[in-house]
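Blinded run. Sample ID left blank on purpose so nobody reads anything into the name before looking at the predicted structure. Input follows.
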Amino acid sequence: MAVRRLGKGLSALIPDTPSDELQQSERLRDVEVSQVRPNPFQPRENFDPTALQELKQSISENGIIQPISVRVANSGYELIAGERRLRAVSELGLDRIPAYVLEVTTDEEMIELSLIENIQRENLNAVDEAKGYQTLVIKCNLTQDEVAKKVGKDRTTITNSLRILRLPKIIQESLSKDEISAGHARALLTLSKKEDQIKLWKRTLKNKYSVRQVEKIAKAEKPAATSRKKSPPKQDPFINEAENKLRSILGTQVRIRDNNGKGKIEIEYYSSTDIERILELMEGI
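Blinded prediction complete.
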């Protein structure tokens, strides 16, 4: 049975020390390109044609330096990591490609490995990275803390990344195209209304605002009442503990607004699928 060692990407399954050379060589094979199916959990939605062309040029001159990673599936193979390399080899008309054949038996392992590897090594744009984290939360039923541990980042980074998915689709697409940076996106999120976010985004593109400029404008455009709000009272330790328990169970941000024993519970979600996941968890409580 395969040993499940997730949390460090494919390096957890592919040894790179000299003492493991024999084990590594047994996993490394030349496989037919036509037998490798795309990864159904590929987080990257956009592939830079210029970067792909440069990769093809490199392969033509130097060959494949880093093998792809696959698992055995239905009389062939299913890609885990290395889709750009696979595309480049296919477009070059090559018949075979070196691949690590890994013992990955469940879709959950497949999702975790492919997403973690892409997030760690493949330089995903901010939107694809956020969607990758979202998939780990939804498909693998992981909390944000667990996602953070698996990809080697802190919880705040994961939370801030997921917040990007609250932006209007047009702004997410702009971020994917590198028209704005993740810093711009976070500044736009300080505006609560989507129409205000879109207006400032358009001004940012037109005037080529820096992140600092967008932050300053967004702060100035917030309703004046916001700045006059009193700082919240110190929270009851019991409320803090309850929030932490709910976050752990539901795998998302939870806030309890308490007012002398009465109040409301706010649960964050990032898509309609995420709502369904949270409802299923609540039904099982």
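Unblinding after everyone has recorded impressions. The CA atoms of residues 71 and 104 lie 6 Å apart.
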